[in-house]
Amino acid sequence: MGALVTSDMWQAYYGYQVPGDTIWPFSAVGPRPDGSGGPDVVAPGCALSAAPFWLDPTGYVEGEGTSMAVPHVAGMAALLWEAAERAGLPVTASAVREAVLAGSRPLEGYAYVEQGSGAVSATASWEWLARVLASGEGVGPRPRPTPRGLAARRLPAGRMTFAVTGSGHGPAWLELETTAPWLRPEKDQVALTAGLERTVGLTVDTGLEPGLHSARVTADDGLRRLISVPVTLVVPSVLGPETGWTYSGEGELGPARLERHFLRVPPGAARLEVSCGVPVGADDRFAGRVRLHLFRPDGRPAATTDYIGAGAADLSGYVVVAVDDPEEGVWEAVVYSSAALSAFGLERSSYWLEASLGGLVYDLPAGGLDLAVPVAGLAEASGLSPASLGDPASLITRFWLQPGAAWGGRQAAGGDPHPAEAELRLPWTNAGGGLDAQVRGYGLWSEPWPARPETVTVRPGEALTRTLPPLGGERGLLRVTLRSLHLSGVGQDPADLDLYLYRREPDGWHETAASATPGSSTEVIELTDPEAGTYIVFIEGSGTGTDSVTAELASEWLASRGEVEPLEGSLRCAPGETGLMPVRVRLPENEGVYRGAVRVVDRAAGEGGSVGLLPLTVRRGPRGVLLFTAPGALAEGPNLLTFSVRASDWTPVPDFSLELEGRAYMASGGRVTLPLPLGPTAEAGSRLRLTARVVLPGGEAFTWVLHLPVLGPTEWSRALEPGGPAWLEEEGFRPSGLEEARRLAAGLLTGGP
User: How does DSSP classify residue 604?
Assistant: First the structure.
């Protein structure tokens, strides 16, 4: 349920002149984690109600939000039911629900995932309900779509699918339509009967502009809508080398309107800065009044600012939000235009928005640095070599090693049944100023740090403490961060939060480290090789302010066990310089998921001066999935390449999405088949490099860098002969494993296992 505020409500409740119907900015929107939409409908989100005098001396109180919208809809549903009974119609709960949805009116300027079917209308819903119930058809069972919705947040999708299972009696022809021109069903009709499952394919325009794209796939039987599947695409603006690691935009918004900007942050970025401002108009006044909301990839708020521009005490007209060590993924920056523009003689807000990455930025595929190694057995597949071993600049982001073979294209000297290590070359760009730094490695560990991030609120003059999990005296790095979630303007007087770390001694608690930047409530403590013992975090709010501060408190322990080793311990680079960072990872023998990190420390700032922290994941054993291509090699001209996924026990994985070269595709029947034309420049003996990422329904993702051989006309017949294919020997497979490898390659070339 969403919270609606009409133009008349703005005037009656607040005295603001707001044209059109709007939705409260704090009203929840979709899509949900399963891809389904957000609110089904929106309803009035303001109400006056009687209240006890201890709550309000006037005896009345005004409420705002979805808690006010729900009673409006509940009352309307009760009236619909009562009217149907009085008319002698066979009403049911499902019929009333469908009537509420069918009678709703879409709002201009809002996507489907933000408003659902739109603003409720009792009159329109009654007209629909009376017509359907009087027809004698009634409202029977509806076909069931699986999943309930489709969503792609990181990449534009090329093809999407969903399944629909028939219900009721007898066959029915459903007319398929979509609500947006960028989304097209592959068939206009689908026939369903009870219990029959059909797959519906959708073609998605891959040339969409950055932003939010929301539509629906609907299916009608001529009387009523039986299926409504929301499809949501978020096309982010990429902060990458082609844009100088920056983004800039501008816009105009009416009162109580917002605009959503999506920013793709690569793995390993050291700092994200987002700034927003209001320009000065020809009359030397600010041309708007806006505030900025910044959200992390998982939807958690990162920062909320005060209003800037007209009426703000801060006369600069802009605000800057800085986030250290931002998570990889799609961040969302929301610019909201104040509903009170009319109070400042304004009709619209003009604004600008800029974002940039600072420090050391790694050029890695989506998902970051993720290595997968089996306990025993052959490499995953000869045709799926994840890096060209003859290319010294290759980045190994996910791979399978043959037992006993050292990565690097050379035979192992001994008979070690486990791959011992992997050497990585991490491409980086210095997006900040000149840097003189140390490079350090941490890990590997299998047990997660038991302390989770939490949101805390501290008032002026108050303090709070949190006890950290005990430390055993290992070598490593303890990081404690406190990040303010609200940036206050100069008109407010917030408390200044300071961060302290205490260790328990026989005679009491002793201060071990502190971060107390004047005027800032964002603090970081980094303590190298702390002594064993019990530690507490102490947060203190200065007693001079008048307003409380809400911040996120987090801690993590990075054990230094020598298994992640930077091969060059120093890094000196100029602004804009690029390079490769060599790192050796000693691989664990036992099955499991292990974590580590590569840390860059500014020498001038000392031990607590991290300017980059790149997480590392190593998966050992039969966990995860295997990716197969059919065929396992390509030829000049048109190719059809089929991708399939199997679990570690070779069980086919029916549902997954494949992200390939900047596009996302959903599997149909456990496979994704794509045309892949190769021009005349594709020479026999060369390799085509593709970056593929598989995302499972639960969100777990796996990345490969594929190097597929390009074969000439005569090489296809030789590929299945006992003496070939030749690239198996070239990439370090042990002779004892070649027969099995050839069998596997033959299966790939003829259609996959």
Answer: G
Q: Which helix (H) or strand (E) holds 342?
A: none
Place 156 in a pLDDT band, splitting at 50, 70 and 90. Answer: low
Architecture per CATH, domain 1-139, reads as: 3-Layer(aba) Sandwich (3.40)
The residue type of 491 is: G
Given this chain, do its domains 237-358 and 454-559 carry the same CATH topology?
Answer: yes
Q: How would you class 625 by CB atoms within 10 Å of its CB: exposed for 0-12, middle for 13-18, buried for 19 or more?
A: middle
The residue ranking higher by pLDDT, 512 or 747, is: 512
Give the pair of three-digit tokens for residue 207. 């040339």
Please give the share of the chain, as a percent, with pLDDT higher than 70: 82
Tell me the pLDDT band of 383, cut-offs 50, 70 and 90.
very low
pLDDT of residue 436: 92
C-alpha dihedral sign at 286, 288, 289, 294: negative
DSSP string, 170-230: S-EEEEEEESSTTEEES-SEEEE-BT-EEEEEEEE-TTPPSEEEEEEEEEE-SSSEEEEEE
Residue 287 is classified by DSSP as S
625-749: what CATH class? mainly beta
CA separation for the pair 706, 433 (Å, rounded): 35
Beta bridge partners of 641: 674
State the Cα–Cα distance between residues 536 and 501, nearest whole angstrom. Answer: 6
Question: Which of the residue ranges 397-411, 653-667, 724-738 would you say has the lowest mean pLDDT?
Answer: 397-411
Strands 237-238 and 258-265: parallel
Q: Which of 450-454, 547-551, 732-736 has the lowest mean pLDDT?
A: 732-736
CA pseudo-torsion sign 470, 472, 473, 475: negative
CA dihedral sign of residues 34, 37, 40, 41: positive
Of 628, 626, 627, residue with least CA distance to 752: 628
CA distances 298 to 121, 302, 363, 483, Å, are 34, 10, 22, 17
The reply to whether omega before 444 is within 30° of 0 (cis) is: yes
Q: What is the mean pLDDT of residues 345-354?
A: 97
Each residue's pLDDT tens digit, 531-553: 999 999 999 998 777 778 889 99
Domain 454-559 of CATH type 3.40.50.720:
no
For residue range 174-204, what is the model confidence (pLDDT) as tens digits? 889 999 999 999 888 888 887 788 888 888 8
- CA-to-CA distance for 401 and 396, rounded, in angstroms? 12
Q: Residue 378: what pLDDT?
A: 31
Residue type (1 letter), 8:
D
List of residues 6+ apart from 168 with CB closer than 8 A: 140, 141, 194
Among 3.30.50.10, 3.40.50.300, 2.60.120.380, 3.90.1200.10, what is the CATH number of 237-358? 2.60.120.380
Q: How would you list the strands of the sheet with 625-630, edge to edge?
A: 625-630, 640-647, 671-675
Specify the pairing of strand 183-185 against strand 197-204. antiparallel
**Burial label, 629 (beta-carbon count in 10 A; 0-12, 13-18, 19+):** buried
**pTM for the full model?**
0.79
Residues facing residue 273 across a β-bridge: 322, 356
Query: Which of 699, 563, 716, 694 is closest to 634 using CA atoms?
Result: 716
Structure tokens at 79: 């009236």
State both tokens at 221. Answer: 């039987």
Decide if pLDDT at 263 tops 90: yes
Question: What count of other Cβ atoms lies within 10 Å of the Cβ of residue 601?
Answer: 22
Closest of 403, 383, 399 to residue 751, by C-alpha: 383
Structural domain boundaries of the chain? Answer: 1-139, 237-358, 454-559, 625-749
If pLDDT is split at 50, 70 and 90, which confidence band does 272 have?
very high
Instruction: Decide if pLDDT at 716 tops 80.
Output: no
pLDDT at 259: 97
Q: What is the DSSP letter of 734?
A: -
Q: Both tokens of residue 456?
A: 């805390």
